Amino acid sequence: MIVCGIIFTHNSSDRIENIVLRARAVLEPDIYVMDNESTDDTLKKAAGAGARILGSAKEGSSRVLQALEQVHELEYTHAILLNANNDTHRPEMIPMFVSAFWNSPQTIFVASSKQKGRASVTHALLTASAMCSIRDAWNSFRGYPIEDVLALHCVEKDALFDAETLVRASWAGLATRHLELDASCPVESQMGNSRDAIWFSLKLLGRSVVRYPSLLKRRLTL
User: Using only C-alpha atoms, what is the Rg of the chain?
Assistant: First the structure.
């Protein structure tokens, strides 16, 4: 198992050095940065702090997917993703993901908030689509087994990609577990009740109908 950390940035120059140094302290030297068209000196500061810079994200595809594809080519097997602009995505939590991977290497791990916010419409729709409980769908602090996630063939972009992985993981029989790390998405309810997220969740629900017999059979045999 070879694990890396991927920090997603956008105009994060005021904080990226600190985050990279803290991440390197727990997962040296395998820390990468994927930037989203920053107009400040985020990348310069990230590189100066010792992060390795991934290729620029291309239009039309998820930044997460592109980052996973790039580190997969570098022969990493697992990736821990965090957002530089979310204060609850603390690099000190990275070892907990690594430990979880050692115990269950073919599992997606999602950081959870200990203080549960108001449930969103989409969480109900995603739960119905996956036929299992889905929460924290919009929290991008994740641990991904790279090959398994790439094999899901997710097509959505940005925040929708992370939610899509949870549903497609259930369809594929890939386990998803939550790590109670008190890491949250500050705009979880806003994102989860947005028009785009609801429409996306309804589309997944429609696609899940033909999968219900096999999902139900799997649930009954667990």
Answer: 17
- Alpha carbons 92 and 96: distance in angstroms, whole number: 8
Residue from 183, 98, 174, 91 nearest 143 by CA: 98
This prediction has a pTM of: 0.88
**Separation CA 58–CA 115 (nearest Å):** 35
* CATH (domain of 139): 3.90.550.10
Number of domains observed in the structure of the chain? 1
Report phi then psi at 160, rounded to 5: -65, -30
Q: Which residues contact 194 (CB under 8 A, 6 or more apart)?
A: none
Alpha helices in 74-210 (DSSP H): 94-103, 121-130, 146-150, 159-172, 188-192, 195-208
Domain that holds residue 166: 3-221
Q: What is the residue-level pLDDT of the chain in tens, covering all 222 positions?
A: 999 999 999 899 899 999 999 999 999 889 999 988 888 999 999 999 999 999 877 776 788 999 999 999 999 999 999 999 888 899 999 999 999 999 999 999 998 876 655 557 888 888 888 888 888 888 889 999 999 999 999 888 877 898 899 999 988 889 898 888 776 666 565 676 778 888 888 888 888 877 766 666 666 565
Q: In 3-state terms, what secondary structure has residue 81? A: strand
